[in-house]
Design a protein that fits this description.
Blueprint (H helix, E strand, L loop, with lengths): L1 E8 L6 H13 L3 E7 L5 H5 L3 E6 L12 H6 L9 E6 L3 H11 L5 E2 L3 E2 L6 H22 L1
Parallel strand pairs: 1-2, 1-3, 3-4, 4-5, 4-6
Helix pairs in contact: 1-5
């Protein structure tokens, strides 16, 4: 059993449909405990409690990510997240991906290929991305055993 934390925020309600797709995939998994928070409600504790962290954001804020993540970004300074995997979902393109990668840069977390949601993204696309993220995480822990 492992924990997947889904931390998300967007100013567009339509973006939340993608989070619903993520949620649906994770709820199907018998070996996954789902921990989810909106950006403003999340803390470093939520990240620390997760083996895999899916961070989803739009670019609404001076940091290039949603402004509700400001406290988490500040708290990430000096935190070691080695052994965990990060999946980034960007609702606004590559600039948001870059901002999130920068926020996690010093944490030693392994970053999986981001999902950039520009335009319509199908449920099948999201499901495939989540499945591959979980597969990569499992490969990484099997390599440590």
């Amino acid at each position: 059993m492992y924990t997947v934390g889904v931390i998300y925020e967007s100013r567009e309600e339509g973006d939340l449909q993608i989070i619903n797709f993520v949620r649906a995939v994770l709820r199907e998994k018998k070996d996954v405990a789902l921990r989810e928070r909106r950006g403003g409600d999340a803390s470093i504790v939520d990240i620390n409690a997760s083996d895999v962290v899916i961070f989803a954001s739009d670019g609404n804020g001076e940091l290039g990510i949603n402004s509700s993540f400001a406290e988490i970004v500040r708290a990430l300074k000096g935190v070691n997240l080695a052994g965990r995997m990060l999946g980034i979902i960007s609702f606004d393109g590559e600039e948001t991906v870059s901002a999130l990668k920068e926020a996690f840069h010093d944490s030693c977390i392994t970053c999986y290929e981001p999902l950039v949601c520009e335009g319509e993204i199908s449920e099948a696309t999201v499901k495939k991305w989540v499945e591959k993220l979980l597969e990569k995480y499992k490969e990484s822990i099997n390599g440590r055993e």
